[in-house]
Design brief:
This protein has 361 residues and is an alpha+beta fold. The protein folds into 2 domains: 2-16 and 176-355; 23-157, no CATH class. It is 52% helix and 18% strand. It is built from 12 helices and 12 strands. The protein has helices at residues 2-10, 12-16, 39-46, 58-63, 65-73, 158-175, 177-187, 205-231, 239-255, 266-286, 295-324, 328-355; strands spanning 23-28, 32-38, 76-79, 82-85, 89-93, 96-106, 113-118, 129-134, 139-142, 148-152, 192-195, 198-201. The strands form 3 sheets. Strands 1, 2, 4, 5, 6, 8 and 9 form a 7-stranded mixed sheet that branches. The protein has a 3-stranded antiparallel sheet with strand order 3-7-10, with no helix packed on it. Strands 11-12 form a two-stranded antiparallel sheet. α7 (177-187) runs parallel beside α9.
Length: 361
Amino acid sequence: MTRALLALVLCAPAVAHAHAGSDSFLTLGPSGGRWDIALRDLDDALGVDADGDGAIAWGEVAAREADVVAYALAHLDVAPCAVRAGAAELAAHADGGYLSLPLSLACPPGAGEVTVRYSLFFDRDPGHRGLVRADGGELAALSPAQPVRTLRFAPTSALATLAEFVGEGAHHVAGGIDHVLFLLALLLPAVLRRDARGWAPAAGLRPALANVARVVTAFTLGHSVTLSLAVLGYARMPARLVETSIAVSVAVAAVANLRRLFGDDRWVVALALGLLHGFGFSSALTELGLGGGRLAPALLGFNLGVELGQLALVSIFVPVAYLARRTVAYRRLVLVGGSAAIAVVAVIWSVERALGLTLGS
Protein backbone atom coordinates (compact mmCIF):
# COMPACT_ATOMS: atom_id res chain seq x y z
CA MET A 1 0.00 0.00 0.00
CA THR A 2 2.82 2.42 0.82
CA ARG A 3 4.29 1.88 -2.66
CA ALA A 4 0.91 2.63 -4.25
CA LEU A 5 0.62 5.89 -2.34
CA LEU A 6 4.19 6.86 -3.23
CA ALA A 7 3.36 6.23 -6.89
CA LEU A 8 0.32 8.47 -6.56
CA VAL A 9 2.46 11.29 -5.16
CA LEU A 10 5.04 10.96 -7.94
CA CYS A 11 2.43 10.66 -10.67
CA ALA A 12 0.09 13.38 -9.37
CA PRO A 13 0.54 15.64 -12.41
CA ALA A 14 -0.39 12.82 -14.78
CA VAL A 15 -3.35 11.72 -12.68
CA ALA A 16 -4.55 15.29 -12.53
CA HIS A 17 -5.18 15.27 -16.26
CA ALA A 18 -6.91 11.87 -16.34
CA HIS A 19 -10.22 12.82 -14.76
CA ALA A 20 -12.29 13.80 -17.81
CA GLY A 21 -14.23 10.97 -19.39
CA SER A 22 -14.46 10.65 -23.16
CA ASP A 23 -17.67 9.31 -24.70
CA SER A 24 -19.53 9.79 -27.95
CA PHE A 25 -23.28 9.27 -28.27
CA LEU A 26 -24.67 7.32 -31.22
CA THR A 27 -28.40 6.75 -31.78
CA LEU A 28 -29.45 4.35 -34.55
CA GLY A 29 -32.79 3.48 -36.12
CA PRO A 30 -33.75 1.34 -39.14
CA SER A 31 -33.30 4.30 -41.51
CA GLY A 32 -30.90 6.66 -39.74
CA GLY A 33 -29.67 8.19 -36.55
CA ARG A 34 -27.41 10.76 -34.97
CA TRP A 35 -23.82 10.76 -33.75
CA ASP A 36 -22.52 13.33 -31.25
CA ILE A 37 -18.73 13.50 -30.87
CA ALA A 38 -16.93 15.76 -28.39
CA LEU A 39 -15.12 18.65 -30.05
CA ARG A 40 -12.22 18.32 -27.61
CA ASP A 41 -11.67 14.72 -28.78
CA LEU A 42 -11.79 15.73 -32.43
CA ASP A 43 -9.32 18.51 -31.74
CA ASP A 44 -6.93 16.05 -30.07
CA ALA A 45 -7.11 13.79 -33.11
CA LEU A 46 -7.28 16.29 -35.98
CA GLY A 47 -6.25 19.70 -34.63
CA VAL A 48 -9.60 21.36 -35.33
CA ASP A 49 -8.73 24.39 -33.18
CA ALA A 50 -6.80 26.17 -35.91
CA ASP A 51 -5.79 29.26 -33.92
CA GLY A 52 -4.97 27.28 -30.77
CA ASP A 53 -6.97 29.56 -28.48
CA GLY A 54 -8.74 26.67 -26.72
CA ALA A 55 -12.17 27.69 -28.03
CA ILE A 56 -13.38 25.77 -31.09
CA ALA A 57 -15.56 28.05 -33.23
CA TRP A 58 -18.05 26.92 -35.85
CA GLY A 59 -15.88 28.38 -38.59
CA GLU A 60 -12.99 26.14 -37.54
CA VAL A 61 -15.27 23.10 -37.55
CA ALA A 62 -16.77 23.99 -40.94
CA ALA A 63 -13.29 24.39 -42.45
CA ARG A 64 -12.43 20.80 -41.47
CA GLU A 65 -15.89 19.25 -41.84
CA ALA A 66 -14.96 16.93 -44.72
CA ASP A 67 -11.90 15.66 -42.83
CA VAL A 68 -13.89 15.20 -39.61
CA VAL A 69 -16.72 13.29 -41.32
CA ALA A 70 -14.30 11.05 -43.20
CA TYR A 71 -12.33 10.37 -40.02
CA ALA A 72 -15.48 9.50 -38.04
CA LEU A 73 -17.05 7.24 -40.68
CA ALA A 74 -13.74 5.39 -41.13
CA HIS A 75 -14.13 4.22 -37.53
CA LEU A 76 -17.77 3.10 -37.69
CA ASP A 77 -19.38 0.15 -39.47
CA VAL A 78 -23.07 -0.75 -39.15
CA ALA A 79 -23.56 -4.09 -40.90
CA PRO A 80 -25.44 -4.92 -43.07
CA CYS A 81 -26.22 -1.25 -43.73
CA ALA A 82 -24.42 1.51 -45.61
CA VAL A 83 -23.85 4.62 -43.49
CA ARG A 84 -23.81 8.18 -44.79
CA ALA A 85 -23.51 11.43 -42.86
CA GLY A 86 -25.43 14.64 -43.44
CA ALA A 87 -24.46 18.23 -42.72
CA ALA A 88 -22.70 18.62 -39.39
CA GLU A 89 -24.12 20.76 -36.60
CA LEU A 90 -22.93 21.88 -33.18
CA ALA A 91 -24.59 20.50 -30.06
CA ALA A 92 -24.19 21.35 -26.38
CA HIS A 93 -23.79 18.57 -23.84
CA ALA A 94 -23.26 18.80 -20.10
CA ASP A 95 -19.49 18.50 -20.49
CA GLY A 96 -19.00 20.87 -23.43
CA GLY A 97 -19.45 21.27 -27.17
CA TYR A 98 -20.07 18.37 -29.54
CA LEU A 99 -20.17 17.88 -33.29
CA SER A 100 -23.53 16.36 -34.20
CA LEU A 101 -23.72 14.26 -37.39
CA PRO A 102 -27.12 13.21 -38.75
CA LEU A 103 -26.79 9.71 -40.22
CA SER A 104 -28.73 7.85 -42.88
CA LEU A 105 -28.71 4.05 -43.05
CA ALA A 106 -29.40 2.03 -46.18
CA CYS A 107 -30.32 -1.38 -44.78
CA PRO A 108 -31.75 -4.48 -46.49
CA PRO A 109 -35.57 -4.68 -46.31
CA GLY A 110 -36.81 -6.10 -43.02
CA ALA A 111 -33.50 -5.76 -41.18
CA GLY A 112 -34.37 -6.06 -37.50
CA GLU A 113 -30.88 -5.76 -36.10
CA VAL A 114 -27.46 -4.33 -36.90
CA THR A 115 -23.92 -5.22 -35.89
CA VAL A 116 -22.01 -2.10 -34.87
CA ARG A 117 -18.22 -2.04 -35.13
CA TYR A 118 -16.77 1.03 -33.46
CA SER A 119 -13.15 2.15 -33.13
CA LEU A 120 -13.23 5.97 -32.89
CA PHE A 121 -10.26 7.34 -30.87
CA PHE A 122 -9.33 3.86 -29.59
CA ASP A 123 -5.78 4.29 -30.88
CA ARG A 124 -5.44 7.56 -28.94
CA ASP A 125 -7.57 7.06 -25.83
CA PRO A 126 -8.08 3.56 -24.39
CA GLY A 127 -10.70 5.01 -22.02
CA HIS A 128 -12.94 6.29 -24.80
CA ARG A 129 -16.36 4.68 -25.30
CA GLY A 130 -19.09 4.89 -27.89
CA LEU A 131 -22.49 4.84 -26.17
CA VAL A 132 -24.88 3.40 -28.76
CA ARG A 133 -28.66 3.39 -28.36
CA ALA A 134 -30.80 1.50 -30.85
CA ASP A 135 -34.33 2.52 -31.77
CA GLY A 136 -36.36 0.48 -29.30
CA GLY A 137 -34.06 1.08 -26.37
CA GLU A 138 -31.21 -1.44 -26.49
CA LEU A 139 -27.98 0.15 -25.28
CA ALA A 140 -24.32 -0.75 -25.85
CA ALA A 141 -21.13 0.75 -24.46
CA LEU A 142 -18.43 0.04 -27.04
CA SER A 143 -14.80 0.19 -25.95
CA PRO A 144 -11.41 -1.20 -27.00
CA ALA A 145 -12.26 -4.29 -24.95
CA GLN A 146 -15.64 -4.69 -26.68
CA PRO A 147 -15.68 -2.86 -30.02
CA VAL A 148 -18.49 -4.92 -31.62
CA ARG A 149 -22.10 -5.36 -30.56
CA THR A 150 -25.29 -6.57 -32.26
CA LEU A 151 -28.34 -4.45 -31.46
CA ARG A 152 -32.00 -5.12 -32.21
CA PHE A 153 -34.55 -2.54 -33.27
CA ALA A 154 -37.08 -3.84 -30.76
CA PRO A 155 -38.24 -2.74 -27.30
CA THR A 156 -36.04 -4.05 -24.50
CA SER A 157 -37.39 -5.48 -21.26
CA ALA A 158 -37.13 -3.70 -17.93
CA LEU A 159 -34.85 -6.47 -16.67
CA ALA A 160 -32.47 -6.05 -19.62
CA THR A 161 -32.39 -2.30 -19.05
CA LEU A 162 -31.70 -2.84 -15.34
CA ALA A 163 -28.80 -5.20 -16.09
CA GLU A 164 -27.34 -2.87 -18.73
CA PHE A 165 -27.27 0.10 -16.38
CA VAL A 166 -25.83 -1.85 -13.47
CA GLY A 167 -22.77 -2.20 -15.69
CA GLU A 168 -22.90 1.49 -16.60
CA GLY A 169 -23.00 2.52 -12.94
CA ALA A 170 -20.07 0.30 -12.02
CA HIS A 171 -18.09 1.60 -14.99
CA HIS A 172 -18.81 5.19 -14.01
CA VAL A 173 -17.26 4.62 -10.58
CA ALA A 174 -14.28 2.68 -11.92
CA GLY A 175 -13.63 5.26 -14.63
CA GLY A 176 -14.28 8.32 -12.44
CA ILE A 177 -10.94 8.95 -10.74
CA ASP A 178 -12.35 11.96 -8.87
CA HIS A 179 -15.07 9.82 -7.26
CA VAL A 180 -12.53 7.11 -6.42
CA LEU A 181 -10.13 9.57 -4.77
CA PHE A 182 -12.98 11.18 -2.84
CA LEU A 183 -14.04 7.80 -1.45
CA LEU A 184 -10.42 6.95 -0.63
CA ALA A 185 -10.04 10.24 1.23
CA LEU A 186 -13.05 9.29 3.33
CA LEU A 187 -11.82 5.74 3.90
CA LEU A 188 -8.18 6.50 4.81
CA PRO A 189 -9.00 7.44 8.45
CA ALA A 190 -11.89 4.97 8.77
CA VAL A 191 -9.69 2.39 10.53
CA LEU A 192 -8.37 5.03 12.95
CA ARG A 193 -9.77 7.23 15.70
CA ARG A 194 -8.83 10.71 16.82
CA ASP A 195 -7.64 11.33 20.36
CA ALA A 196 -5.87 14.23 22.06
CA ARG A 197 -2.56 13.32 20.40
CA GLY A 198 -3.94 12.82 16.89
CA TRP A 199 -4.79 9.69 14.92
CA ALA A 200 -4.65 6.37 16.73
CA PRO A 201 -5.62 2.86 15.56
CA ALA A 202 -9.24 1.79 15.99
CA ALA A 203 -9.67 -0.48 18.99
CA GLY A 204 -11.05 -3.39 16.99
CA LEU A 205 -12.72 -4.59 13.82
CA ARG A 206 -16.28 -3.77 14.89
CA PRO A 207 -15.79 -0.02 15.45
CA ALA A 208 -13.71 0.22 12.27
CA LEU A 209 -16.42 -1.47 10.20
CA ALA A 210 -19.12 0.65 11.85
CA ASN A 211 -17.18 3.78 10.88
CA VAL A 212 -16.82 2.57 7.29
CA ALA A 213 -20.52 1.68 7.12
CA ARG A 214 -21.60 5.12 8.34
CA VAL A 215 -19.37 6.96 5.87
CA VAL A 216 -20.26 4.82 2.83
CA THR A 217 -23.99 4.77 3.64
CA ALA A 218 -24.08 8.54 4.07
CA PHE A 219 -22.22 9.08 0.79
CA THR A 220 -24.57 6.64 -0.96
CA LEU A 221 -27.65 8.38 0.41
CA GLY A 222 -26.36 11.80 -0.62
CA HIS A 223 -25.49 10.97 -4.23
CA SER A 224 -28.60 8.79 -4.69
CA VAL A 225 -30.88 11.70 -3.78
CA THR A 226 -29.38 14.22 -6.20
CA LEU A 227 -28.81 11.61 -8.92
CA SER A 228 -32.52 10.77 -8.85
CA LEU A 229 -33.63 14.41 -8.69
CA ALA A 230 -31.37 15.40 -11.59
CA VAL A 231 -32.35 12.49 -13.86
CA LEU A 232 -36.06 13.07 -13.16
CA GLY A 233 -35.65 16.74 -14.02
CA TYR A 234 -36.33 18.22 -10.58
CA ALA A 235 -32.85 19.65 -9.97
CA ARG A 236 -30.10 21.00 -12.20
CA MET A 237 -26.62 22.47 -11.77
CA PRO A 238 -24.36 23.89 -14.50
CA ALA A 239 -21.84 21.28 -15.62
CA ARG A 240 -18.77 23.42 -14.90
CA LEU A 241 -20.06 24.24 -11.40
CA VAL A 242 -20.75 20.55 -10.72
CA GLU A 243 -17.32 19.40 -11.89
CA THR A 244 -15.53 22.20 -10.04
CA SER A 245 -17.51 21.53 -6.85
CA ILE A 246 -16.70 17.83 -7.01
CA ALA A 247 -12.99 18.62 -7.32
CA VAL A 248 -13.24 21.00 -4.35
CA SER A 249 -15.04 18.31 -2.34
CA VAL A 250 -12.15 15.88 -2.97
CA ALA A 251 -9.69 18.51 -1.71
CA VAL A 252 -11.83 19.23 1.37
CA ALA A 253 -12.14 15.53 2.25
CA ALA A 254 -8.36 15.08 1.91
CA VAL A 255 -7.42 18.20 3.89
CA ALA A 256 -9.82 17.14 6.67
CA ASN A 257 -7.49 14.17 7.25
CA LEU A 258 -4.60 16.59 7.82
CA ARG A 259 -6.39 19.34 9.75
CA ARG A 260 -9.41 18.97 11.99
CA LEU A 261 -11.93 20.85 9.84
CA PHE A 262 -14.98 19.02 11.18
CA GLY A 263 -16.04 17.08 14.23
CA ASP A 264 -15.90 13.32 14.61
CA ASP A 265 -19.12 12.76 12.65
CA ARG A 266 -17.46 12.29 9.27
CA TRP A 267 -20.61 10.69 7.95
CA VAL A 268 -22.27 14.13 7.97
CA VAL A 269 -19.51 15.42 5.69
CA ALA A 270 -19.88 12.36 3.46
CA LEU A 271 -23.62 12.99 3.21
CA ALA A 272 -23.26 16.67 2.35
CA LEU A 273 -20.52 16.18 -0.22
CA GLY A 274 -22.26 13.11 -1.63
CA LEU A 275 -25.06 15.43 -2.75
CA LEU A 276 -22.59 17.12 -5.11
CA HIS A 277 -21.36 13.84 -6.54
CA GLY A 278 -24.92 12.82 -7.39
CA PHE A 279 -25.09 15.64 -9.93
CA GLY A 280 -21.85 14.33 -11.45
CA PHE A 281 -23.21 10.78 -11.68
CA SER A 282 -26.42 12.06 -13.30
CA SER A 283 -24.67 13.26 -16.46
CA ALA A 284 -24.08 9.66 -17.55
CA LEU A 285 -27.84 9.05 -17.59
CA THR A 286 -29.22 12.36 -18.81
CA GLU A 287 -26.93 12.35 -21.87
CA LEU A 288 -28.56 9.13 -23.08
CA GLY A 289 -32.00 10.77 -23.33
CA LEU A 290 -33.85 8.00 -21.50
CA GLY A 291 -37.56 8.29 -20.97
CA GLY A 292 -40.80 6.40 -20.57
CA GLY A 293 -40.72 2.92 -19.10
CA ARG A 294 -36.94 2.64 -19.36
CA LEU A 295 -36.18 5.47 -16.95
CA ALA A 296 -37.07 3.71 -13.68
CA PRO A 297 -35.09 0.48 -14.32
CA ALA A 298 -32.19 2.51 -15.75
CA LEU A 299 -32.07 4.73 -12.66
CA LEU A 300 -32.31 1.76 -10.30
CA GLY A 301 -29.71 -0.22 -12.22
CA PHE A 302 -27.29 2.71 -12.38
CA ASN A 303 -27.60 3.28 -8.63
CA LEU A 304 -26.98 -0.41 -7.97
CA GLY A 305 -23.95 -0.35 -10.26
CA VAL A 306 -22.50 2.66 -8.45
CA GLU A 307 -22.93 0.90 -5.13
CA LEU A 308 -21.32 -2.28 -6.43
CA GLY A 309 -18.38 -0.25 -7.66
CA GLN A 310 -18.02 1.44 -4.28
CA LEU A 311 -18.32 -1.85 -2.41
CA ALA A 312 -15.59 -3.36 -4.59
CA LEU A 313 -13.26 -0.51 -3.62
CA VAL A 314 -14.19 -0.81 0.05
CA SER A 315 -13.70 -4.59 0.07
CA ILE A 316 -10.19 -4.21 -1.36
CA PHE A 317 -9.02 -1.23 0.66
CA VAL A 318 -10.48 -1.70 4.14
CA PRO A 319 -9.04 -5.16 5.04
CA VAL A 320 -5.52 -4.04 4.07
CA ALA A 321 -5.92 -0.71 5.89
CA TYR A 322 -7.23 -2.45 9.00
CA LEU A 323 -4.26 -4.81 9.16
CA ALA A 324 -1.83 -1.89 8.69
CA ARG A 325 -3.59 0.59 11.00
CA ARG A 326 -1.21 0.13 13.95
CA THR A 327 1.91 0.85 11.91
CA VAL A 328 3.60 4.24 11.82
CA ALA A 329 3.86 3.82 8.03
CA TYR A 330 0.08 3.76 7.69
CA ARG A 331 -0.56 6.77 9.90
CA ARG A 332 2.33 8.86 8.55
CA LEU A 333 2.87 7.81 4.94
CA VAL A 334 -0.48 6.37 3.86
CA LEU A 335 -2.85 8.68 5.75
CA VAL A 336 -0.82 11.89 5.72
CA GLY A 337 1.09 11.34 2.47
CA GLY A 338 -1.89 9.91 0.65
CA SER A 339 -4.20 12.69 1.80
CA ALA A 340 -1.66 15.33 0.78
CA ALA A 341 -1.28 13.76 -2.68
CA ILE A 342 -5.06 13.61 -3.15
CA ALA A 343 -5.39 17.24 -2.04
CA VAL A 344 -2.74 18.38 -4.56
CA VAL A 345 -4.44 16.56 -7.43
CA ALA A 346 -7.87 17.89 -6.40
CA VAL A 347 -6.62 21.50 -6.23
CA ILE A 348 -5.23 21.16 -9.77
CA TRP A 349 -8.61 19.81 -10.91
CA SER A 350 -10.43 22.66 -9.17
CA VAL A 351 -8.39 25.32 -10.99
CA GLU A 352 -8.61 23.53 -14.34
CA ARG A 353 -12.36 23.04 -14.14
CA ALA A 354 -13.17 26.50 -12.79
CA LEU A 355 -11.09 28.29 -15.45
CA GLY A 356 -11.37 25.81 -18.31
CA LEU A 357 -7.60 25.29 -18.38
CA THR A 358 -5.25 22.34 -18.62
CA LEU A 359 -2.32 23.08 -16.32
CA GLY A 360 1.09 21.94 -17.39
CA SER A 361 0.06 21.16 -20.97
